[in-house]
């Protein structure tokens, strides 16, 4: 199949997307379909709209925050989620005990007895970025030189491990590409060549989606901008046309493969917008209108912006409001975060709606997208997804 995407008047992208192989199955054994993503009346979209309409502004604000506290104490995790009522939690190394069974106790504490479970995310790329010590499946260092089918097999097994642990979102598919071995993203990338990487990215997404919400990162792509966004805002003068024929290809392939989530990076293509993509309305428009992405857009860790030391990014609340105003649906905060940070973000987002800085319709739209994904994952039946190649885990 060939797809043409229009990026406003600036560029036209044409990319070949390979057909998928045999469908994977969910825990119930049914073939993967797009039923859960339907916007038909009575489906998750309508249910999400109804639930969000019944929320207060503060409740909507809480629903689009993904927070974190560095503990594996189930009681502390449960208290954090109950007291904040946030829509998501990211598992980091400090949250992961030594066994899968013990981790399920922690994710159960995060989930609580909620009618609609929160989004529980994890950075399970495998290899260099791996939160699950028992994940021994092939990762990017070897997959980038292997056929796309090998990537699909590895990510199907990896996604099943994530689901078995009780998480429902994997921030695991790196769509960034670079031939520069000195780049911080090189070892994590699924290929130095964008076209070849696109095939692997599509395979990874297609393999993960039956089990967890698969995430493409870090849009619009590290590789061209030199530097590490954990410490600065990498920037490149590459034009939109140049991006569209190179770095964009793996993202287009992953979107076409059905990725539920798109993570925006803190990096700038200055010919498109001087602002980092995570805070750029232009880049959000490109993702939505140019590439046709209709899922959840999540920021990379907003704490990374604070770590740059740039004064204009030293306020986490202002960063969150700017990201949502630009078009992000879910704000992620890890670095420089305390147990009180989630509450501060919630109050700040709600206050921005009250004073007109953030349009109420934009918050509602974001809350509906996040709620729809929560409903889809709750209905997927993939918590105990099959993993035929997984070794028994203690």
Keywords:
eight-stranded parallel sheet; 394 residues; globular; alpha/beta; TIM Barrel; two-stranded antiparallel ribbon; disordered N terminus
Class in CATH?
Answer: Alpha Beta
What fraction of residues sit in β-strands? 5-15%
Separate helix tally: 14
Helical residue percent band:
25-40%
CATH architecture: Alpha-Beta Barrel
Low-pLDDT sequence parts: 1-40, 383-389
CATH topology: TIM Barrel
Order of strands in the sheet with the most strands? 11-9-7-6-5-4-3-12
Taking the alpha carbons of the first and last residues, their distance comes to 43 Å
- Bulk shape: globular
Instruction: Report the mean per-residue pLDDT as an integer.
Output: 87
Number of domains: 1
Q: How many individual β-strands?
A: 12
* Global structural class: alpha/beta
CATH superfamily: Glycoside hydrolase, family 3, N-terminal domain
CA radius of gyration = 19 Å
SSE topology string: EEHHEHEHEHHEHEEHHEEHEHHEHH
Can you describe this structure in just a few lines?
By secondary structure, this protein is of the alpha/beta class.
Describe this structure in words.
The protein has 394 residues and is of the alpha/beta class. The protein has one domain (38-379): Alpha-Beta Barrel (TIM Barrel), CATH 3.20.20. It is built from 14 helices and 12 strands. Helix 2 crosses helix 13, helix 3 packs parallel to helix 4 and helix 6 (148-164) runs parallel beside helix 7 (194-208). The longest helix has 20 residues, at 360-379. It is globular, with a radius of gyration of 19 Å.
């Amino acid at each position: 199949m060939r797809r043409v995407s229009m990026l406003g008047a600036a560029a036209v992208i044409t990319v070949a997307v390979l057909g998928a192989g045999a469908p994977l199955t969910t825990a119930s054994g049914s073939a993967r379909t797009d039923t859960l993503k339907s916007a038909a009346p009575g489906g998750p979209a309508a249910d999400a709209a109804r639930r969000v309409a019944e929320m207060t502004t503060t409740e909507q604000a809480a629903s689009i925050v993904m927070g974190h506290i560095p503990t594996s104490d189930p009681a502390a995790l449960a208290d954090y989620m109950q007291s904040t009522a946030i829509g998501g939690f990211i598992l980091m190394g400090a949250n992961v005990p030594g066994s899968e069974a013990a981790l399920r106790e922690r994710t159960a504490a995060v989930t609580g007895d909620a009618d609609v479970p929160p989004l529980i995310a994890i950075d399970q790329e495998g290899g260099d970025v791996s939160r699950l010590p028992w994940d021994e499946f092939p990762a990017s260092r070897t997959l980038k030189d292997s056929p796309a089918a090998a990537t699909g097999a590895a990510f199907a097994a990896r996604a099943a491990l994530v689901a078995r642990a009780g998480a429902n979102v994997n921030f695991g598919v790196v769509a960034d590409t670079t031939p520069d071995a000195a780049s911080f993203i090189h070892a994590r990338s699924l290929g130095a060549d964008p076209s070849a990487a696109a095939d692997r990215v599509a395979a990874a997404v297609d393999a993960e989606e039956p089990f967890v919400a698969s995430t493409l990162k870090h849009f619009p792509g590290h590789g061209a901008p030199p530097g590490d966004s954990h410490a600065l805002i990498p920037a490149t003068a590459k034009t939109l046309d140049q991006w569209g024929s190179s770095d964009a290809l793996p993202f287009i392939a992953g979107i076409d493969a059905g990725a539920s989530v798109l993570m925006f990076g803190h990096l700038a293509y200055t010919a498109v917008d001087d602002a980092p993509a995570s805070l750029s309305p232009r880049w959000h428009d490109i993702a939505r209108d140019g590439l046709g992405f209709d899922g959840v857009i999540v920021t990379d860790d907003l704490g990374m912006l604070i770590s740059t030391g740039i004064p204009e990014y030293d306020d986490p609340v202002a960063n969150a409001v700017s990201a949502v105003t630009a078009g992000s649906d879910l704000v992620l905060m890890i670095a420089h975060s305390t147990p009180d940070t989630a509450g501060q973000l919630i109050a700040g987002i709600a206050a921005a709606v009250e004073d007109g800085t953030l349009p109420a319709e934009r918050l509602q739209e974001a809350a509906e997208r996040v709620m729809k994904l929560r409903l889809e994952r709750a209905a997927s039946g993939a918590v105990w997804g099959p993993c035929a190649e997984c070794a028994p885990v203690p």
